[in-house]
Amino acid sequence: MCDRETLTRSLYFRHACKRFDPERKLPEADLRFILEAARLAPSAFGMEAWRFLVIRDPELKATLRPVCWDQPQITECSDLVVILGQIASVADPEYYSAMFRRRGLSEEATRAYIRRYEEYIGKLHSIQGWVAKQCYIAADHMMVYASLIGVDSCPIEGFEPRKVDKILGLDRKKERSVLLLPLGYRLQEPREKKRRPFEEVVTFL
Ligand SMILES: Cc1cc2nc3c(=O)[nH]c(=O)nc-3n(C[C@H](O)[C@H](O)[C@H](O)COP(=O)(O)O)c2cc1C
């Protein structure tokens, strides 16, 4: 495990990187480490309703950039991770039953889980919103673990999901882009971190 000092340094190292050095590519092992952090992220009911597309092709990045508010990170990063929320699978009994069955619990306990799950998702306002929340957790896992190995990132919500999904050839009934996460190395040092004071955002009761 890491000591607090190392982890604090990493908290300050991580920032929303605006300009990546287009010449620097991520080593394959580092990219895989970051994606593994996403795969191991927690998700509600353990549904893992996500998929990660890793875009490296410069032409595809260039096609995506105009529908991503023309943000330079899209084309300048080493690897562009597109986090997809799998909206269909969470409502598919075959999928979610298998996700509960893999736990190896008794039949009775498994059925109870499934019942509770069905009741829960039946009451959800928006399945898409719920799935997106899980994807953001996976995104944060990637950002945190990337920073621990000196890799920069930038969460990007500034894009047109329908257009991105069309370019990527996604079936929007099944899965949709939720967040983009360019990875790479900073071109310049970030500005000083601005945050509200600890006492203002934390209350001990
Ligand atoms: C969900 C989400 C969406 C964001 N979308 C963008 C974006 O489209 N473009 C961008 O440059 N930064 C984006 N940001 C980065 C934030 O602006 C940034 O995290 C915030 O200003 C704090 O700065 P820091 O991360 O450098 O500490 C996004 C952050 C989050 C969490």
UniProtKB/TrEMBL annotation:
PANTHER family: NAD(P)H NITROREDUCTASE YDGI-RELATED, NITROREDUCTASE
Name of the protein described by the UniProt record: Nitroreductase
Family under the similarity heading: Belongs to the nitroreductase family.
The Nitroreductase domain, residue ranges: 13-185
Sorted UniProt keywords: Flavoprotein, FMN, NADP, Oxidoreductase
Keyword Oxidoreductase appears in the UniProt entry: yes
Cofactor field: FMN
A GO MF term: oxidoreductase activity
Keyword NADP found: yes
